[in-house]
Amino acid sequence: MKMIHWSPIEEMTLLQDQINKIFEPSPVSESPKTLNYTFPVEVTETPARYLVRLMAPGIDPDKIELQATPKGLTVKAEFQSRKLESDETLVVNQFRYGQCSQSLAFSEDIHPENVEAQYKNGILEVSLPKTEHIHRKSIQIKVAE
């Protein structure tokens, strides 16, 4: 007779996963999902600046709020659902609606007044120039006679 190792923990995990699937939202929904979430973001750095790229498709650029401080950047927007026409019935809705925000902190200070932003093809690019650093200088001590 062959012995088989049985793990009750694996069985309970499988059962929990199956129960969780019962309570997942249906792909056919009559009400849009409303929640808070963050933008997908990409940050690159050069010696002179940070470049932040955020995916924000479907948002009017005039409705995006940018706030820059010497230490970071905050981007806020809201995805709003559209009103259905009287003869329309929602069949499938996988869109997300609600507040969307992203706050980023940088290791080096930036010039908030020189920040530039551009929106193209659903991508928001924000260029954040770094402040010039005062380099350390060795000071020679003179010996008085």
Question: What are its keywords?
Answer:
145 residues; mainly beta; Immunoglobulin-like; 4-stranded mixed beta sheet; 4-stranded antiparallel beta sheet; 1 helix; 8 strands; flat
Order of helices and strands: HEEEEEEEE
Arithmetic mean of pLDDT? 82
Which CATH architecture of the domain at 27-82 and 93-129 would you pick?
Sandwich
What is the count of β-strands?
8
Name of the CATH first level of the domain at 27-82 and 93-129: Mainly Beta
Low-confidence stretches: 27-32
Q: Could you tell me the radius of gyration in angstroms?
A: 26 Å
> In the CATH scheme, what's the topology name of the domain at 27-82 and 93-129?
Immunoglobulin-like
Instruction: Provide the spatial order of strands within the biggest beta sheet.
Output: 1-6-5-4
Q: How would you describe what is shown here?
A:
By secondary structure, the protein is mainly β. It has a domain of 93 residues: Immunoglobulin-like. Helices cover 10% and strands 34% of the residues. The strands form two sheets. The chain has a four-stranded mixed β-sheet, with no helix packed on it. Strands 2-3-8-7 form a four-stranded antiparallel β-sheet, with no helix packed on it. The longest helix has 15 residues. The protein is flat, with a radius of gyration of 26 Å.
